Amino acid sequence: MSGRRRLDWLGLTPEPERELPAAVAALRASGDRTAETPTPGTRTPGTRTPGTRTAEELAAAERRRVERLVLRGTRHSWLRYLAEVTDLVTGVAAGTRTGDPAAALLAGEVVLDHHRMLIGLPGPGYGRTAADRTALESAVRALRTRTPSRTHTHTRAGGSR
Fold first, then answer.
1. Do residues 65 and 110 lie in contact, with contact meaning Cβ atoms separated by under 8 Å?
2. Which residue, among 53, 110, 56, 54, has the nearest Cα to 81 in the 3D structure?
3. Whole-angstrom Cα distance, residue 69 to residue 74?
4. Rounded Cα gap, residues 75 and 8, in angstroms
5. Angle between helices 101-117 and 130-146 (to 10 degrees)
6. Residue 48 half-sphere exposure, CB side, CA atoms within 13 Å?
7. CA 107, CA 136: separation in Å to the nearest integer?
């Protein structure tokens, strides 16, 4: 291969870029002490504790991170990011991490679909994500049993569920 960067990993599906930031921000917020987590009766509406970030700010920060990875990252850095997301999802599914099961389910489905599609690309990506695929399959099954039926489901490339 020439000195040119391989970009085939970018063309898999747009769902990770579109759907992960808000879901991942929600999952990170559940374990982030700087995130605003309102407790009924503890604050007046419209006020924030200094140093806290709103859900919108957290989602915007996650969107910027994904954008940097897509525009300047490598296949390796992208898969490392998705491994972080896998850890968040599996933690919520196992009950070892607090978090919104619906956000975890959405993130798990998106990453699992992404990892399954790696089989069509050259290189070691599919093999490298085998353990994550197995963990995500189990986590998604567990989260589906705990998550109320959603009115909007994640749409897989090539069809809907």
1. no
2. 110
3. 7
4. 9
5. 150
6. 11
7. 10
Alpha carbon 108 to chain centroid, angstroms: 7
The distance between the two most distant Cα atoms of the chain, rounded to a whole number of Å, is: 61
Residues in the chain, total: 161
Give the whole-angstrom CA distance, residue 110 versus residue 80.
15
In Å, how far are 56, 66, 88 from 154, measured between CA atoms? Answer: 21, 19, 18
Buried b (16+ CB within 10 A) or exposed e, 6-31: eeebeebbebbeebbbbbbbbbbbbe
Provide the residue-wise pLDDT of the chain in tens; the chain has 161 residues.
Answer: 445 556 556 656 677 888 899 999 999 998 654 444 443 333 444 444 555 788 899 999 999 999 998 888 888 899 999 999 999 999 999 999 999 999 999 999 999 999 998 898 888 889 999 999 999 999 999 999 987 765 444 544 444 43
